[in-house]
Amino acid sequence: MTKLSAAERAAVKEEFPELGRQVKKYPVRDGESAWTLNEAETLVVGLMAERERLQRELTEADVELSDFLRNSGEGAGDDQADSGANALEREQELTIVNNMRDLLAQTNRALERVARGTYATCEATGAAIGKARLQAFPRATLSVEAKAREERR
Fold first, then answer.
1. For residues 60-96, b (16+ Cβ closer than 10 Å) or e, as one string?
2. Interval 84-99: pLDDT, tens
3. C-alpha distances in angstroms, 139 versus 13, 16, 32, 49, 82?
4. Contact (Cβ atoms closer than 8 angstroms) between residue 142 and residue 122
């Protein structure tokens, strides 16, 4: 596990004052050890950093996209190839911005689950998501089994 700085611990404690009590109730899968406060804090610090990064990048991307859309009508006399290239670039920029918005929403949802004390619990089954899964994908809301069922539909 990563060693957290005093500033990181203070930021977690400020935003999630109940984490120390809640982590004791996080479910674990068979064969897993109980969650420690350090493990939970490490994941939360990562989610908080991801939230900050995504918010910053999304703000920058929104400005760039607005500029691109504002200037996309310029260039009178563009031929069809230029228009097609501009449309493709506009679509790619929109896709990137929408993907960032989705990631930010997932990150915020994970942090809301931390605040409610339901972070390690599968939303579909109420079972443990699993420490290894959350450490690999901290935004996970479903156990591996529930995710597999969802993807088969």
1. ebeeeeeeeeeeeeeeeeeeeeeeeebeeeeeeeeee
2. 777 777 788 888 889 9
3. 20, 17, 19, 13, 40
4. yes
The three-class DSSP label of residue 32 is coil
Listed by start position, the domains of the chain span: 6-152
Residue type (1 letter), 92? Q
Entry pTM = 0.84
Give the three-state DSSP class for 121.
Answer: strand
Region 125-148 average pLDDT: 95
Does the domain at residues 6-152 carry the CATH identifier 1.20.120.910?
yes
Q: Is the pLDDT of residue 75 over 70?
A: no
